[in-house]
Amino acid sequence: MASSVRPKLPKNYQLIYEIVQASGIGRHLTPSEIFTKAHKRQPGIGFSTVYRGLERLRELGLISELYVPGVDAATYEPSGPWHAHFRCSACGAIEDVAYAIPPRTLKMLALQHGFKIASERVTFEGRCAACAF
Amino acid sequence: MASSVRPKLPKNYQLIYEIVQASGIGRHLTPSEIFTKAHKRQPGIGFSTVYRGLERLRELGLISELYVPGVDAATYEPSGPWHAHFRCSACGAIEDVAYAIPPRTLKMLALQHGFKIASERVTFEGRCAACAF
DNA sequence: GAAGGGCTGAAAGTGATTTTCACTTTCACA
DNA sequence: TGTGAAAGTGAAAATCACTTTCAGCCCTTC
Known about the structure:
2 copies of one chain form a homodimer.
Chain A: H1 11-23, H2 31-41, H3 47-59, E1 63-66, E2 75-78, E3 84-88, E4 94-97, H4 103-113, E5 116-127, H5 129-132
Parallel strand pairs in A: 3-5
Antiparallel strand pairs in A: 1-2, 3-4
The structure holds a DNA duplex.
């Protein structure tokens, strides 16, 4: 389905979506970075539109939002398979990590505590390869 | 060691520490809640002192900081054994969950990616027992 | 072609956190 | 016990991310 038709998406939202897509999985953009990029392509676009767009796209599941401790802005990335994130406490880089908590474990925890788990967020912190030494 | 001597801690920081301790593991306080409590015991204490104290205590590893998506203030809890957190998307409650990613897994991931993991944060989201139905 | 809903940008508002600054307290050591 | 340096302090202002509001525009639908 790649860049399949999405006829109902207002063009500004489409633009935002493209920007986040273009950044690729593994890059993580803050709203203001997105705004800057969007503004280049569409001068006159407003801040609020970017926020609204991000919210909408998130609702639609097209992008996902990510809160990383130590970064006070939310960051966005294209939706993709579940994965964890790693943040280097030295250089601040954020890396994707192919890891998800096993479904069996989730089920067990949910059962134990009596709640329903809809999503999980896993973030590691430490030093990346470049800063590790 | 319980409330062991910590001769080097300025008394305001000590106070903050006590407040967070007193809240107990599993309770999660925001800086402004902490400020309010501190202010009762020590009228005249300033906001900045609370923030500074929290920062210091965190550096010392005496308390831990927790960012929960959907809550825009940081929250603090006494340091304790590693555990995950669960946030109910309906009522906003935050629960502790006794879960940590197995050390073996961490080691493997670290090896794979070439970084050193110092800490992990795991947050689940969904509906708590009360809201699940 | 008119009605109505969704979308828009600008600007003001909100609330958490950080910074600044001048003053006070604490501490190590002579 | 005196002394200077370093650390801690509170108030207020600044910053920063984000949200809300509002009046106008555009595009679809009838």
